[in-house]
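To: structure desk
From: M.T.
Subject: fold request, one chain
Message: Could you run this one when you get a chance? Sequence is below, nothing fancy, just the single chain.
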Amino acid sequence: MARTRRYEVAASGRWWDEDDGRWLPAGEVHAWEQGRNETVCGLSIHRSRLSRFPAINWTDVLPESGGAADAVRRVCPRCAAAAGRRGAEARPAWRRVNPRP
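Reply: Done. Structure tokens follow.
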């Protein structure tokens, strides 16, 4: 059985949410996997000076989700293509309707 990948968030900035009492991502956001030192699109987290947010899922920072996306200005298009836009308005996964025998 294939393991599903879980993407967290790395962002160029952060802001303090008084209601939740935690730091949330701001600015440009990227997807990254726990245990790796680079984003899904290949940027080095340290050299790009990105902040990691391991407690926030990738789907929460998409603007259409409304979750932790209040201060997000830009979603990396390469990370969005790799990690997917699994929001409410996302297209269903591609599937073959009439496969050849």
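Reply (cont.): Residues 60 and 67 are 5 Å apart (CA to CA). Let me know if you need anything else for the meeting.
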